[in-house]
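INFO batch 0412 | record 1 of 1 | parsing
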Amino acid sequence: MPFRRRRSTRATVTGLTAAALLAGLSLTGGAEPAQAATGGLVRVNQVGYAGGGAKEAFLLAKSAVSGAKWRLLNSRGKAVAAGRTKASLGTWNAAYPAVYLIDFSSVTARGTYHLVVDGAAEGSSPAFTIGSSSAVLAGPAADATTFFQAQRDGADTIPGQLGRGPSHLNDAHASVYAWPAFTDPDSDTITAAPRKIGGPVDVSGGWFDAGDLLKFTETTSYAVAALQIAALHTGAGPKSALGAEAQHGLDWLDKMWDPKTKTLYIQVGLGSGTDSGSVVGDHDVWRLPEQDDTDSADPFLRDRPVFRAGAPGSRISPNQAGRLAADFALAAQRYAATGRAADRARARGYLATAAQIYALADTHPKGQLVTAVPFGYYPETSWQDDLAFGGAELALAAQKLRDPRASAWLAQAATWAKGHQSEADADTLNMYDTSALADLDLARAEQAAGRPKGLAASYDQLIGYVKGQLGTGQRRAQADPFHAGAIYDDFDADSHTMGLAATVQLYRSVTGDTSYDRFGTEQLDWLLGANAWGSSFMVGEGSTFPECTAGELGNLAGSLNGTRPLEVGAIVNGPNGTGQFDGGLGDYLDGMRPCPASGDAFAAFTGHGSTYTDDVRSWQSSEPALDMDASGLLAFYLSK
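INFO prediction complete | emitting tokens
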């Protein structure tokens, strides 16, 4: 994959006064006789908990203990709840062989709190809040939008904390190139300069993909879908910050599709150049994007190449066709919802674009899907979920616009939904598997159509499939010491974590079923600090968060100590399989600001086959990316 990078730590333990401790002891009638206590760390959602929801924290202990006492103290040092830990939820690693649950769900009063553990074990937590879900999650939701604003390319940038300025203005008249040859299938190093085959085309704007400065339809299409779904579900209009950011991404996708020649462009920028250095690509130079337009030494940085999916008029890889059709159909729904005549006309235009792309989908793909150049950046293998997604959004848009094609798209979407349910590489919601988005919106479309009979996938089957995904995540969480539902000893843990949290809310909005709410809350908690590492994995959220993000914007324009300026809202890849770190982190690139200053603050918490390190060289765990934040943004907006 393209660069994905990061590093973190700030004070994890907040001190308490003697008066606060005595106040806490008074709740249970005084202190017990002194005894040797084991060291412990208290892990909490460092942002906060919704008053009416589940509230879980964890004691990570250096040895097994029996009945450690815990107290929840308010901002005045008064204990408002207390209890004792029960049986261990499991071992984390050799240094921390026991994890204990602290459940204080009964507390609903708004305020700022700390948890204190003493007796058999000792530890205290950072401060956190309890409040309405809207109050608690409004900050992360807004900051996720801010992250997308910081990733803007082109003339319409937003300065923000990182002082962004216009960049890659030369993309407005870019040349089209044939796909280059690579030195081997697992490398992005090219054998020679690519060959120019056309242009100029205007591909300016859009968002940077990850820690690098490349732009892809593969990731942007997923992000645009997530932002638009969030806007539809929360009623955010086109002129809101969320609506405007969704439109920025959609406008770039509109440029990447040429309706006259029926050509899809999929990528702006060359990943790596040649081994000899005769050609320099994006990954070869660590710099800020504003420098590229005047780079006289590196022509492929100054005038970035554009790559297309295939020849004009050819069939479109179904993963791309399905997601892009969904994007434009979601735009049709957004503008149809305003009730203004001009917006309804605009909605019909977006529906026409969606229909054109959908009709060109290659429904019998052979070999690798078309994702990026090279394919190894984003090796997607599933596609029927994307066609189901596109068909579902087309059906919903047609229903809103009273277009007679609604029933045909409904039938097509149901056929593809039936197909994806038997795909061998089925997953939970993330960029590579959009089936949850597809099935839930298809269920809505079927409901709106009166649940017609004879469809390949019925309403009940669609709901049942998504329920199965949630059940899979829930079973993982029940077996995990920190109630994580994602697989964090492989890759893309944070994207999957937030995908599960978002799916819970989407599922609830369609069915009214609240039985997965606690599970969804646990996933938000895990991402925001209630994990073994005691770090939030979202920049600017909580008391400990990534400081050494593995990307050029955060590293070169941000601080390296957790203070402003920050690449605020960036969700990093997070803990991933220890095997991803074989061979170490490598050397610093020229121009890279070293970070952290010394050591790995999280090394002691490597466990369960998973590693997290907050280091600018650690693309494996510290790189922010569009798809990470897209899943997170959707989860936060729907949960608040």
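INFO post-check: The first helix runs from residue 18 to 26.
INFO record closed
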